[in-house]
Write a structure and sequence with these properties.
Helix content is about 35%, strand content about 25%. The chain contains seven helices and seven strands, in the order E-H-E-E-E-H-H-E-E-H-E-H-H-H.
């Protein structure tokens, strides 16, 4: 049973390079770093898919072509059991974490993220690995600048990254790629202990 890495976002050109598409952007970096097989549209599951090898493991990459709040539809067609979910890694944006940071977790709630909520409902378990990628600006203390109000949050997450922010995201993507390799090679606990302290 291969690992499945899902990068969350919204399909379509108007959402390219938006903060809410961070999962897809990082997934594309992983694809290029591990064999560079082009994404192909899998109409059966309504997702872009590519296969690659990380270490000795075969890995399926998947970017759902549904909108964020329906991400679980495509994922559940590949992750068909609780056991299979243990090899699922979901990468997504987090506006409560500063840009440049990442956090790995396992078997946690959705934290209000619509894409994650959709996957939890569709695969019927929270017991899978997730990697949150920060998208927020930093305050003077190095914490995320909090955003309040539904309209402001929506405007922020659907806003496009600036060029310098994309450079930071590229550095984070490199870390995520290494963290994924560690998860596959040495297990999620080891990866969490190494990467969550950064």
């Amino acid at each position: 049973m291969p690992y499945i890495i899902a990068g969350l976002g919204n399909p379509g050109e108007e959402y390219a390079n938006t903060r809410h598409n961070t999962g897809r952007l990082v997934l594309d970096f992983i694809r290029k770093e591990n064999g560079d097989e082009e994404f192909k549209l899998n109409k059966k599951i309504d997702a872009l898919t590519a296969d690659c090898k990380i270490g000795k493991e075969k890995v399926n990459l998947i970017a759902p072509e549904t909108f964020m709040n329906n991400s679980g539809k495509a994922v559940s067609l590949l992750v068909k059991s609780i056991k299979a979910a243990e090899k699922l890694i979901v990468i997504y944006d987090d506006f409560s974490l500063p840009l440049g940071r990442m956090r790995i977790s396992y078997n946690r709630s959705s934290g209000g993220h619509n894409g994650l909520e959709s996957i939890i409902k569709a695969v019927k378990t929270e017991a899978f690995i997730r990697i949150r990628i920060g998208t927020a600006s930093e305050n003077a203390k190095g914490n995320a600048k909090l955003i309040h109000g539904e309209e402001k949050i929506e405007k922020f997450i659907l806003g496009k990254f600036k060029d310098d922010e994309l450079k930071t995201l590229k550095k984070v993507s490199k870390n995520v790629n290494e963290a994924v390799a560690m998860i596959i090679r040495e297990g999620r606990e080891k990866a969490m202990s190494v990467w969550n302290g950064m």
